[in-house]
UniProtKB/TrEMBL annotation:
This is Putative arsenic resistance operon repressor ArsR. One of its GO terms (molecular function) is DNA binding. Keywords: DNA-binding, Transcription, Transcription regulation. It comes from Arthrobacter globiformis (strain ATCC 8010 / DSM 20124 / JCM 1332 / NBRC 12137 / NCIMB 8907 / NRRL B-2979 / 168). It comes from the Bacteria. Coiled coil: none annotated. Residues 22-116 form the HTH arsR-type domain.
Length: 116
């Protein structure tokens, strides 16, 4: 039985792209994370959450930034959570999201070639 890494765990384990080539399994593991960020709505959501006061945002804080329904925004946030870029916590009727800054730092190091 092999242990399967999440996209965020895979990024954390990889050397920068400029240091050595990714293996096929590493590339397969990281691709879902990059695909999640490749959507303009999800990229903006990631930015809004990460830069929000206190480092977290409620779905109710994010709806007005888009001409999309609340269920659509929630779907995009769910995808970012599933790949490991956002943590979430339900408080009452609202869900609050927090950027996993270590995941963003590891992704930047992978792409930018900075030693971790």
């Amino acid at each position: 039985m092999s242990l399967e890494l999440t996209p965020v765990q895979t990024v954390a384990c990889c050397s920068p792209l400029t240091r050595e080539p990714l293996s096929a399994p590493e590339a397969e593991g990281i691709a879902p994370l990059l695909k999640a960020l490749a959507d303009p709505v999800r990229l903006r959501l990631m930015s809004l959450v990460a830069s929000h006061e206190g480092g977290e945002a409620c779905v109710c804080d994010l709806n007005d930034a888009f001409e999309l329904s609340q269920p659509t925004i929630s779907h995009h946030l769910k995808l970012l959570h599933e790949v490991g870029l956002l943590d979430r916590e339900k408080r009452g009727v609202w869900v609050y999201y927090r950027a996993r800054t270590e995941a963003l730092t590891n992704l930047a190091a992978l792409i930018g070639g900075q030693a971790k």
